[in-house]
Amino acid sequence: MMKINSIHSIVDVIASQYTIPLPLNKIAEEEGLRVIYDDYGRNTFDGMTWYEPDQDQFFIHINIARGNRENSSKARFTLAHELGHYFIDHHRHALETGKMQPHFHCYEPILHYAAHHLLEIFAAHQNRFCFHIKNNV
Fold first, then answer.
1. What 3-state DSSP class applies to 40?
2. Bridge-based pairing state of the strands 47-52 and 57-63
3. What is the separation of C-alpha 13 from the centre of its chain, rounded to a whole number of angstroms?
4. How far apart are CA 59 and CA 52, in angstroms?
5. How many domains does the chain have?
6. Do strands 34-38 and 57-63 pair parallel, antiparallel, or not at all (unpaired)?
């Protein structure tokens, strides 16, 4: 398990270990997380991170009924967000200890904020992204 202390450190560590575009399902697999793409209904959630103490296992549920087809832009955003809950130490520990209950995420209202935040991340790693785009287009 990667030990990461801040959101910017998460981005730096992951960006240094993987190629662009980030292989999110591979990252989850290497961390021992089980990602489940299933139909949980249209009026529920996009993504949810769940810890099952009986199995000592984290599960990430991605709802295909809300347009999260595997590897679609929305599913990648949803999975990246849910991976964030796992990689942020206090979120992961709170889920493991029951101090934080799993909560559902629906993303339409926050897409503008997310886009702005992703631009900040892009700016921090623009040389790597530009190199990738220039050499793969």
1. coil
2. antiparallel
3. 14
4. 8
5. 1
6. parallel
Question: What are the percentages of helix, strand and coil residues in the chain, rounded to 5?
Answer: 55, 15, 35
Q: Residue 93: inside a domain, yes or no? A: yes
Order of strands, sheet of 34-38, starting from the edge strand that comes earlier in the sequence: 34-38, 57-63, 47-52
Tell me the two tokens of residue 137.
Answer: 């287009």
Nearest CA to 18 among 28, 8, 7?
A: 28
136 belongs to a structural domain: no
Identify whether 135 is part of a domain. no
Is residue 59 in some structural domain?
yes
Tens-place pLDDT, residues 50-104: 999 999 999 999 999 999 999 898 899 899 889 988 988 888 999 999 898 887 7
Residue 57 DSSP SS3: strand
